[in-house]
Amino acid sequence: MTAHTTHHHVHTHELSKTDPRVKLLAAKIKKENHKPDALIEILHTAQNAFGYLPKEVLIYIAQELKLPPSRVFSTVTFYHFFSLKSKGEHTCLVCTGTACYVKGAQALLNKIESQFSLKPGQVTPDNKLGVAVARCIGACGLAPAVVIDNEVQGKVTADDLINSINGKIATI
Amino acid sequence: MNKIPVIIDDKSFEVDPHKTILEVCRELDIEILTMCHLKGLTDIGACRLCLVEVEGINKLLSACTTKVAANMVIKTQTERIKKYQRITTELFFADRNHVCAVCVSNGKCELQNLGYKVELDRIRYPHLFPQCEVDTSHPWYVMDHNRCIMCTRCVRVCNEVEGAHNWDVMNRGHQVRIISDFNTPWGESSTCTSCGKCLHACPTGAIWPKAIVQGQLEKNPGMVNELVERRKMKL
Ligand code: SF4
Ligand code: SF4
Ligand code: FES
Ligand code: FES
User: Fold this and answer.
1) B163 with A6: Cβ contact below 8 A
2) Residue B214 is part of which domain span?
3) Is B196 exposed, middle or buried (0-12, 13-18, 19+ CB in 10 A)?
4) Cross-chain residue pair B190–A74, CB shorter than 8 Å
5) In degrees to the nearest 10, what's the CA dihedral of B198, B204, B207, B210?
6) B232, part of any domain
7) Per-residue pLDDT tens over the stretch B122-170
8) Minimum-distance ligand to the CA of B221?
9) Which domain CATH number covers B103?
10) What is the spatial order of strands in the sheet that B134-135 belongs to?
11) Domain count, chain B
């Protein structure tokens, strides 16, 4: 394959600069020197942080690595490890990275299981709520951290978490 | 350059080293069926139509990606080869939804011609009848996945010659599809320059211009190599 400059005029749905997951991803891309060869590793980092690969994240990665969008999408769909969709209308992503694990991520997962009968990777029968785990979302100082829909919440207790989730589900 | 001796279909020839079996055969007017090969593009050996037998090697080799070597004994017309060519052709037809009678390429299609070449009278494999999209979002061209044989000539011409890399391949197995950008409509592509090269590179009626009447499509796949050669001259 020959190297080429590619023209990108992708309309970016802005990723929030304050989202720790975006910062984590940006740091990883920088560490890899924006090398296109590092695509798979960078996708791994993104999936581990977001629980899946949202379109905005793929657009961002394509731009940062100067890779054609179709090349990025091709790679994502080639490996079963990557997923393009979050499960459920609302999602609760529990960080199970080292810091969060130490600060009680498991207790959060236990509570979710007892309250909603959901294990990580599962979704309620009405598809309202899906639960996923991430490996470090870049908010270790706020451990244990969760992301409900797109909102990062730090130092959460099991009860806070259930309240937040119930709040989100109620807003449809 | 020193020529090397090879034997093709029991005849001796002196040929250029560094060339593929396919290139050598084409120069000697020895017919080899191809589909994913298009002169001017990088060969990928994907379609398995150009298989040849080489003495001393048990498995069949793709002529488009295998270089000739001194004293190679090559066979291009054996029953084994013909059997595989037929299977490959039948699978092309069974994998997607090809209805020649209503196709823009009817009468001028490389796949249809291949069917005649291997004397296809029926298809022994069950048709998969996959659900395929027809993308009409581009102002000038249509991409009909029903007629795509996944040769990736469009992908390579767009990347290697036009430098745009609009197309690529997504998924695996029966779910493979050609995609534009993020599997988004072609008309919304951020990379396509609307140059039309993919249309000419495409061997079937999968990519076609809107301003065309059924069966009237004239493609010019040879333009790809002409372009590549002309650019080389400039350099
Ligand atoms: S028209 Fe040109 S740029 Fe657009 S997809 Fe086809 S080959 Fe690529
Ligand atoms: S669209 Fe045409 S050129 Fe592209 S892979 Fe399909 S058959 Fe080949
Ligand atoms: S381990 Fe949870 S944010 Fe780093
Ligand atoms: S033409 Fe050689 S493998 Fe397709």
Assistant:
1) yes
2) 86-222
3) middle
4) no
5) 120
6) no
7) 899 999 999 999 999 999 999 999 999 999 999 999 999 999 999 999 9
8) 2
9) 3.30.70.20
10) B134-135, B141-144, B207-209
11) 2
Question: In terms of domains, do B154 and B203 share one?
Answer: yes
Tokens 């004994």, located at residue? B73
Span A111-137, average pLDDT = 93
Residue B166 inside a domain? The answer is yes
C-alpha distance from B45 to closest chain A C-alpha (Å): 14
Q: Which residues pair with B5 in a beta bridge?
A: B14
Candidate of B25, B50, B61, B92 to mutate for ligand 4, largest count of ligand atoms within 8 Å of Cβ: B50
Question: Does the model's ipTM exceed the 0.90 cut?
Answer: no
Handedness of CA A70, A78, B61, B118 (dihedral sign): negative
Annotation: CATH topology of A90-171: Glutaredoxin (3.40.30)
Q: Based on the domain organization, do B98 and B51 belong to the same domain?
A: no
Which chain A residues are closer than 8 Å to B168 by Cβ? 68, 70-71, 73-74
**Per-residue pLDDT band at A10 (split at 50, 70, 90):** very low
Reported as a single tens digit per residue, the pLDDT across B187-216 is 999 999 999 999 999 999 999 999 876 667
**Same-domain check for residues B73 and B91:** no
Cross-chain CB nearest to A73 (options B159, B160, B170): B170
Every domain of chain A and the residues it spans: 3-78, 90-171
